[in-house]
Amino acid sequence: MAPASAPELRDRALSLFRVALDAVEPGRLTCAALSRLPSEIRRALELKKGRLIAIAAGKAACPMAQAAEDAFQGLLSRGLAVVPRGHEGKLRRLRTLTAGHPLPDDAGVAATAAVVEEVARLTEADVVLVLLSGGASALLGGPVEGVTLEDARATVALLLESGVPIDAVNDVRKHISVLGGGQLVRAARPAHVIALAMSDVPGDRLDVVASGPTVPDPSTFGDALAVLDRYGLRARVPEAVRKRLERGARRGSGAPKETPKRGDPLFERVETALIGSNATALEAAARAAREAGYRVALIREPVQGEAREAGAALAATLLGERAAGRAPVCLLAGGETTVVVRGDGLGGRNQEVALGAAFSLGGERSVALLAAATDGRDGPTAAAGAVVDGGTLPDAEARGLDARAALARNDSLRFFEGLGYGHIVTGPTLTNVMDVYVGIAT
């Protein structure tokens, strides 16, 4: 393979990221999964023994719902698709509702109520098809009675700003929301529930994806309280949230009802399957990289932890792979890091991963590292992430940019804007399987 310039290396990394995105196109994955729908259910629907209701929620809700409409056509009675604003698509049978993300809003409360109404009064002959993707926890984040929307918003914002991992965040959300933690199944009983999920969480745990509305919840009120205590947040969450969790953990008279657990008869007529994940995206990128002549180093464990530290570790691994083996090498990884907000800047976890990596790459211009969100949005910014190379810091210094100060202020967005290159902008991708990291070394 001929030597490549830094811009060429960045372009190669971006090309592999786009291959990864294409592999997790939700409509195609949903169509393939629906073709395997149990034949007895399909026969019952064709004989008009029951109704088929579809509920789709998340950033991939519209393409997943479109696939369901195409697959079932006249068999689909009605349904709802709940999506973040800007993720709408053209649907024929399902009604589209928009709601706030990553924090719940009034529209999300209304959408939660609409879903409950949609699945109410069903019979054993009816089937509810649930299509879940990243973002559904917030979109269907309507809080339980006694917890206000403002309480729920403040709690989720505090958890996210404190760098709490998503599984722990959802342990809390399940216990203050109407539908999380298997409670959609409660609302839909006695109907047969079939759920297809695209994972946006490390480990692909179905009880964590979208806060697990169709699966048994292994977490308890006590676990939710333990999350708050672990991060020193019990005294900082709204009083209504703290009191609800404490009452639930005591399990005394008048305590709120626990989320349904494994072994509950509720789940006897429920099937939930994973149809796409970060691994799906990485495997496609790995195949493309090998075909292009790269030796592939694939990290299978999800990348987690503080974003800037994860970036430094990824860059060190990339340089180590180049030193230890045959070049050119392509490093591939996925996951979802966290950011503890320390400053008043603007950025996102992937831009911080990339900026953190730049320090470890030093002046090595024959290496590049990309970090990008598969949903196309990195934090509260229009960028999906960023790509850096060994020349990023020297170029920044020549432009009078202070990379360390930018990290200290959590101001990675303005750093890359000032640099004039590096930002990855895709717009909404209508999919979400966490983040992808691509390293290239020649």
Q: Tell me the CATH topology of the largest domain.
A: Rossmann fold
Tally the beta strands: 12
Instruction: Assess the beta-strand content as a share of residues.
Output: 15-25%
Shape designation: globular
Task: Count every helix, treating DSSP H or I runs of 4 or more residues as helices.
Answer: 17
Would you state the CATH class of the largest domain?
Alpha Beta
Main sheet makeup: 6 strands, parallel
Helix content: 40-55%
Rounded to the nearest angstrom, the radius of gyration is 23 Å
Structure description:
The protein has two domains: 6-20 and 279-441, glycerate kinase, domain 1; 25-142 and 177-219 and 259-276, 3-Layer(aba) Sandwich (Rossmann fold), CATH 3.40.50.10180. Helix 1 packs across helix 12, helix 8 crosses helix 10 (221-230) and helix 10 (221-230) crosses helix 11. The protein has 442 residues and is of the alpha/beta class. It has helices at 6-23, 26-34, 39-46, 61-72, 106-119, 136-139, 149-161, 166-174, 183-188, 221-230, 239-250, 278-291, 307-324, 349-361, 392-398, 403-408, 412-419; strands at residues 52-57, 76-84, 95-99, 127-132, 192-198, 270-276, 295-298, 329-335, 367-373, 385-389, 423-424, 435-441. It has a six-stranded parallel β-sheet, with helices on both faces. The protein is 41% helix and 16% strand.
